[in-house]
Amino acid sequence: MYAMNKKRAVVAVTGASGVTIGIRVSGMLARADVDVYCIVSDAAARIIPAEIRGAADARAAFDAVLGEFPANIRIFDERNFDAPPASGSFKFEAMAIAPCSMKTLGKLACGIADNLIVRAAEVALKERRRLVVCPRETPLALTHIRNMETLCMAGAVILPPAISFYGEPKTAGDAADTIAARIVQSMGFEQDTVKEWGL
Ligand SMILES: Cc1cc2nc3c(=O)[nH]c(=O)nc-3n(C[C@H](O)[C@H](O)[C@H](O)COP(=O)(O)O)c2cc1C
Predict the structure, then answer these.
(1) Does residue 53 form part of some domain?
(2) Per the count of CB atoms within 10 A, which of 52, 119, 130, 187 is most buried?
């Protein structure tokens, strides 16, 4: 049944290091009662077993990172090009690409919408919805920097996966949460996993 007032967000996980970040973003949004449309690229699906112990596929990775699979998260693969986020007529509040590979960054900067991830991000840009891009590469080539500039000028928020240390994260997961929380905030949603400074 179509829920008129339900908030929706799109989260794309691409084949860069740090797939846990996108999963954590999805978990924080789900806890904030947002319906999450999560798109996993083919490359991300191949990187998941290398980064998330014991997870053979995306669904297992969500279970491993979040402890349980929230009912308001749906997972799509990048070839599912006719899924709801492919059309501007499907309303979502915001999208994050976390982590964003340099390949996806480049395709989006050039308008090559050949999969559901780039198409949904293009929809976010053209419909003037929030798009948060979390580019993961180091060091950066000038081509990467120029693609980020292009997307920034088109309205995207460029949010590199830079850990905050002032909350004294104890584990790699805690450190990833500091990034995920900033992404959720930049998407315009509330999160209660990481404390705001001064509170
Ligand atoms: C273990 C591993 C780690 C990778 N890490 C990165 C990365 O941090 N950033 C990046 O841009 N590409 C990285 N790549 C390369 C991308 O996975 C590759 O360019 C892929 O085609 C990206 O596809 P996608 O953007 O559709 O997910 C990595 C590849 C492997 C196998």
Answers:
(1) yes
(2) 187
| Region label for 61, one of left (φ > 0), alpha (ψ between -120 and 50) or beta (otherwise) | alpha
Pocket test for ligand 1, best of 17, 107, 148 (most atoms within 8 A of CB): 17
Question: Does residue 60 register a pLDDT over 70?
Answer: yes
- As for how many domains the chain has, the answer is 1
Spatial separation of the C-alpha atoms in residues 148 and 117, rounded to whole Å? 17
Name the maximum alpha-carbon separation found in the chain.
Answer: 47
Q: Domain range spanning residue 136?
A: 8-186
How much is the average pLDDT of 7-35? 98
* Ligand 1 contact, 107 CB (< 6 A): no
Does residue 121 surpass a pLDDT of 90? Answer: yes
